[in-house]
Structure to design on (428 residues):
DNA sequence: TATAATACGGAACAATGTTCCGTTTGTCAA
DNA sequence: TTGACAAACGGAACATTGTTCCGTATTATA
């Protein structure tokens, strides 16, 4: 399940051939920058000045630009990083809960991911070529993540088997438009309802719905 | 029909009370700026530098800022100006063609309006308070425009009477997403189809469909 | 035509993305 | 452990763009 296409580090070093290991301090800077950027984007939006991010990360602007040559590279990296975290959560949840519950919890985790990405989503459609590979990355990470959970839940007889992972991801993303104001309660309620819908037609009968309806 | 809420000039002078008439040179500058902005936005997008617009208008930056104190004011003005033009087209078309044809042509005119406003539409949802009044303006101008054409066509028995102007405007706006690349042919074909649909259930029978299907 | 209000142009300022380069640090072979 | 060098660091400096300010020019009016 956990088939992340590349190794750690997230910076923009040469991906192919004989690239040396990233230096420890560089990795520290990259981590600090990603964390700071995530926080700053959340508070001040994606248009926040890079200086603010560098400062919050306790790093010079030169360092920021060494790892993320353009502003858009940083944004894309944060996006990828968040996708990774969300995708990785699938394996963790799958190990900790039974298939149905893992699926339900991951769907809510996905809501958390989508709901905080309004600004970024807008940036995606800006035509900037830096963001072009992100949809592919989405397919490579999030889609298999849900697919695995879904298959497991179906195999366990906890949910019906005639729904598609892609469809679900799109549906939830659209439901998250109910959370424009940042309040995800309505979106979460609807997603829970959706999941209960999945459970409804399961082979194993006896459905005890969760409390999605208020 | 032509009930434009305010007089000409488009600048941001005091709307209420004892405002003097705009000076001739000022009006010239405003017109030149709106025209230049429209052109520049079309070529370089809404993020084009204001200097470029001022230059194209043959006007100093100071002049631009005198009439449009903020960049967003200029964008909003262009948007309003385009809405006006589109709304005004309704009356012209109504005078020139019979009700059904006028309706059909205006719908295509509306496609032209929407299709060139992708960047602006994104700006609308940016949360900038400058754009807040625009949806209201939309309702005041475009909705009545279509409503009038629709009523006339219904009264003439050329189209069915059970459709709503709002619904149509939304539908067409969504159909225009078929024209992301700037090519509106598909969108126009679909809209033509939509209009033929309107004609289909008309009280006056004998429907000769236009060539929407290729 | 004289006068005052208005508008004009563009230099100057401010904010922000990006580049450049001298200095520092981490890694590794001797 | 130490020396050398590639890599990374910080931040000043540059470039671009939104915005302000003010001296000059134009327009409307008496």
């Amino acid at each position: 399940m956990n088939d992340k296409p590349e190794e750690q580090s997230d910076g923009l070093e040469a991906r192919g051939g004989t690239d040396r290991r990233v230096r420890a301090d560089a990795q520290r800077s990259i981590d600090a920058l990603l964390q700071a950027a995530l926080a700053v984007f959340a508070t001040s939006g994606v248009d926040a000045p890079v200086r603010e991010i560098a400062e919050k990360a306790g790093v010079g602007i030169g360092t920021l630009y060494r790892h993320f040559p353009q502003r858009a590279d940083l944004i894309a990296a944060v996006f990828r990083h968040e996708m990774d975290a969300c995708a990785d959560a699938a394996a963790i949840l799958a190990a900790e809960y039974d298939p149905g519950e893992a699926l339900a919890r991951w769907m809510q985790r996905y809501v958390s991911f989508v709901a905080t990405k309004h600004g970024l989503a807008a940036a995606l459609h800006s035509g900037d070529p830096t963001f072009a590979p992100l949809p592919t990355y989405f397919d490579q990470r999030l889609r298999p993540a849900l697919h695995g959970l879904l298959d497991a839940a179906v195999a366990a007889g906890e949910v019906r088997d005639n729904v598609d992972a892609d469809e679900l991801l799109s549906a939830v993303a659209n439901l998250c438009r109910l959370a424009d104001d940042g309040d995800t309660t309505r979106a979460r309620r609807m997603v829970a309802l959706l999941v209960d819908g999945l459970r409804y037609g399961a082979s194993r009968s006896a459905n005890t719905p969760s409390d999605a309806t208020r």
Q: What stands out?
A: The longest helix of chain B spans residues 71-96. Residues 20-21, 23-26, 49-51, 61-62, 65, 69-71 of chain B lie near DNA strand D (CB under 10 Å from a C1').
